[in-house]
From TrEMBL:
Protein name, as recorded: Tc1-like transposase DDE domain-containing protein
Annotated GO MF terms: nucleic acid binding
Xref: Pfam families: DDE_3 (PF13358)
TM stretches of this protein: none
Signal peptide: none
Residues in Tc1-like transposase DDE domain copies: 15-69
Entries under InterPro entries matching the protein: RNaseH_sf (IPR036397), Tc1-like_DDE_dom (IPR038717)
Top-level taxonomic group: Eukaryota
Length: 93
């Protein structure tokens, strides 16, 4: 979340609607205070519901394209493939 927070602070992100799964990182006092200070809205999200999580579609596409277009064998090949595929995904998806 630190990287996300830095980007949002730089872009003056306020009033975002975020989906968080209730994991420990999302329930810390620091996280709660950050949301309150930035007037963010958190969606109500049922626990253990990966089928509802929109990020799962993104992970599926990432895995599909990395495996089928690049089929990396070495960690540096995987890293390069991840960046290439990630950079082709439209910001608003």
């Amino acid at each position: 979340m630190d990287k996300f927070v830095k980007v949002c602070v730089a872009a003056n992100c306020k009033g975002l609607t975020l989906m968080e799964d209730g994991g420990p990182i999302h329930t810390t006092l620091a996280s709660q205070q950050w949301h309150q200070n930035h007037q963010n809205h958190k969606l109500a999200w049922p626990p253990s519901s990966p089928d509802l999580n929109p990020i799962e579609n993104l992970w599926f596409k990432m895995k599909y394209f990395i495996t089928n277009l690049f089929n990396p064998k070495m960690i540096d090949e995987l890293n390069k493939a991840i960046h290439i595929v990630w950079d082709t995904i439209p910001f608003i998806t």
